[in-house]
Amino acid sequence: MEDRPLSPHIQIYKWHISSLVSISHRITGIINFFAITLICIWFALMLLGESNYQIIKIFLETFLGKFILIGITWSFSFQMLSEVRHLIMDLGYGFELQTTKITGLLVIFGSIVLTILIYFIGRGLI
Amino acid sequence: MVQINLPKNSEVKKGKYYKDKTGSKNLRKINIYRWDPSTEENPRIDTYEVDMDNCPSKVLDILNKIKNEIDPTIAYRRSCAHGVCGSCAMNMGGKNGLACTTPHAEIDGDIDIYPLPHLKVKKDLIGDLDGLYKQYQSIEPWLKNNSTKQTTEIYQSKEDRAKLDGAYECIMCACCSTSCPSYWWNGDKYLGPAVLLQAYRWIIDSRDEERKARLKKVSDELKLYRCHTILNCTNACPKGLNPAKAIAEIKKMLATANV
């Protein structure tokens, strides 16, 4: 009986904090991979002349440019905090259900707070 | 490999609707996954209206009520009804658990009941667990002692015995393994939380003499390290055990021990 159906899996399984943080960790990892490449290209272009710098500057001051910059900042913040969470878990700590929920929430809200902090520090507001 | 969509023969269709005949005011809609191997049809979701005034508190009670009073064709596994045998493991309200210990009051709205995720369905709520049992067999879940002369009991200190707490209570219901996305995508090679918890149970047993060989055996990119601490397993375990921690402990032993 090879034509047996496969029971539904990801379509029906309920998300919870740990699984959300885990999948976001992967997604932000991929985003960061491209973000670092993008930043390297910007730097390389800047080395090639002042006019390039002007173009990048104009781009980064548009809404899309700002969105990308803030997005990258959040993605890096999230990845970093989540990585710390994973390091602690690799040492064998923080596996109790309640703890995983708290550390998961810390990663989510921490990444937002960190993004805002970096934004303010970058703007010279703090 | 990661396969988000269900294969064509597994797509779930809308099924029959069983209207309430008791005239009760306290009704709940129960959506149940159905698949009949004797037909060529795709799986479907049948909806039952159940009179909750005359139904005990657990999800298994609802299933029994439907089977006894509404539709006797529905198939599911159950045995002890006390959370000991692990037969009635299924997916209720999007979460794996034992139907006999899950109160239906804890599920909001209509109750969706599916078989354990990502298994080949045998009929209705019954999934094929053969693969998992084969993997369980592969870790050789029995005490290994090389001494042939020992005729007395092998003593164990209280501390060593305490190490087994949280590992020996597992009833192999497969709630954890079938909740794990890594196991969904790599179930043929990755051992999964249930089997790894049992592997851990024999690795840390002070009476077992094959500790190193056992560690070596699970030390494999696919068998063990597909665990990415998603923690669906620990969230699903109906016995309150922590397979994720056991897997982390195995990884730690492998990182520190000389095997």
Task: Give a written overview of the molecule.
The complex is a heterodimer of chains A (126) and B (259). By secondary structure, chain A is mostly helical. Chain A has a single domain (18-123), classed as 3 helical TM bundles of succinate and fumarate reductases (Up-down Bundle). Chain A is built from four helices and no strands. In chain A, helix 1 (17-47) runs antiparallel to helix 2 and helix 3 (63-90) runs antiparallel to helix 4. Chain A is extended, with a radius of gyration of 20 Å. The mean pLDDT of chain B is 95. Chain B is elongated and about 70 Å long. In chain B, the strands form two sheets. Chain B has a six-stranded mixed beta sheet, covered by helices on one side. In chain B, strands 7-8 form a two-stranded antiparallel sheet. Chain B is an alpha/beta fold. Chain B has eight helices and eight strands. Chain B folds into two domains: 8-127, Beta-grasp domain (Ubiquitin-like (UB roll), Roll), CATH 3.10.20.30; 130-256, Fumarate Reductase Iron-sulfur Protein, Chain B, domain 2.
Key terms:
heterodimer; A: mainly alpha; 3 helical TM bundles of succinate and fumarate reductases; 4 helices; extended; B: alpha/beta; 2 domains; 8 helices
Q: Number of DSSP strands of chain B?
A: 8
Helix-and-strand structural type of chain A: mainly alpha
Q: How many distinct folded domains of chain B?
A: 2
**Architecture of the largest domain in chain B, according to CATH?**
Orthogonal Bundle
Q: The CATH topology of the largest domain in chain B, please?
A: Fumarate Reductase Iron-sulfur Protein, Chain B, domain 2
CATH architecture descriptor text of chain A: Up-down Bundle
The helix/strand order of chain A is: HHHH
Percent helix among the residues of chain A?
over 70%
- If you consult CATH, what is the topology of chain A? 3 helical TM bundles of succinate and fumarate reductases
Tally of separate domains of chain A: 1
The overall pLDDT average of chain B reads 95
N-end to C-end Cα span of chain A: 67 Å
Give unreliable regions of chain B as ranges.
Answer: none
**Morphology call of chain B:** elongated
Q: In which order are the strands of the major sheet of chain B placed? A: 1-3-2-6-4-5
Q: Give the full name of the CATH homologous superfamily of chain A.
A: Fumarate reductase/succinate dehydrogenase, transmembrane subunit
Biggest β-sheet of chain B: count, sense, barrel? 6 strands, mixed
Average per-residue pLDDT of chain A, rounded, comes to 93
Gyration radius of chain A, rounded? 20 Å
